[in-house]
Amino acid sequence: MTKNETSKFIALILRHKPETIGITLDEHGWANVEELVAGIAKQQAFDRDMLEEIVRTDSKMRYSFNEDHTLIRANQGHSIPVDVELEEKTPPDILWHGTGEKYVSSINAQGLIPKSRLYVHLSADYDTAVKVGSRHGKPVVYTVATGDMQKAGYQFYQSVNGVWLTKRVPAEFLKKIEQTK
């Protein structure tokens, strides 16, 4: 596997299916590093140095080690119930959500829901939202009136890699924007 494919495999393990390599996550999403390395090494050439390199160079900052690097977890994006110990934060008044064109009618009707994940993911800027949306086909970007949502009682969290998270975004807080780029 390429480094990128291995990183995606680690994301699958730490976000969705730790049983793929026979490991478990604790209630906060932490996996034992040695068990993770050993489990992946049974399927492909892999060692701790490769893991350290993937975590250090991941442009999306998907993973975190604990202080002594004995535990690792995905920062967000889980479909399995874990508490990654997010601290509630006050978001900027506007955040962004990028999606694919094929999801527009559903979003317009029901807003943003986490589907198989624990949270809806929001971006701090337009360009990031476009990149996220591009993963799902022709990108569509919405602004999210997060300031208004917070005043209405919705909670927001920010992952260590800067991604904003909330449980759902009702349609009345969304505005589809026309792409200028």
TrEMBL record:
<dbReference type="InterPro" id="IPR042080">
    <property type="entry name" value="RNA_2'-PTrans_N"/>
</dbReference>
<dbReference type="InterPro" id="IPR042081">
    <property type="entry name" value="RNA_2'-PTrans_C"/>
</dbReference>
<protein>
    <recommendedName>
        <fullName>Probable RNA 2'-phosphotransferase</fullName>
        <ecNumber>2.7.1.-</ecNumber>
    </recommendedName>
</protein>
<dbReference type="Pfam" id="PF01885">
    <property type="entry name" value="PTS_2-RNA"/>
</dbReference>
<dbReference type="InterPro" id="IPR002745">
    <property type="entry name" value="Ptrans_KptA/Tpt1"/>
</dbReference>
<comment type="similarity">
    <text>Belongs to the KptA/TPT1 family.</text>
</comment>
<comment type="function">
    <text>Removes the 2'-phosphate from RNA via an intermediate in which the phosphate is ADP-ribosylated by NAD followed by a presumed transesterification to release the RNA and generate ADP-ribose 1''-2''-cyclic phosphate (APPR&gt;P). May function as an ADP-ribosylase.</text>
</comment>
<keyword id="KW-0808">Transferase</keyword>
<dbReference type="InterPro" id="IPR022928">
    <property type="entry name" value="RNA_2'-PTrans_KptA"/>
</dbReference>
<keyword id="KW-0520">NAD</keyword>
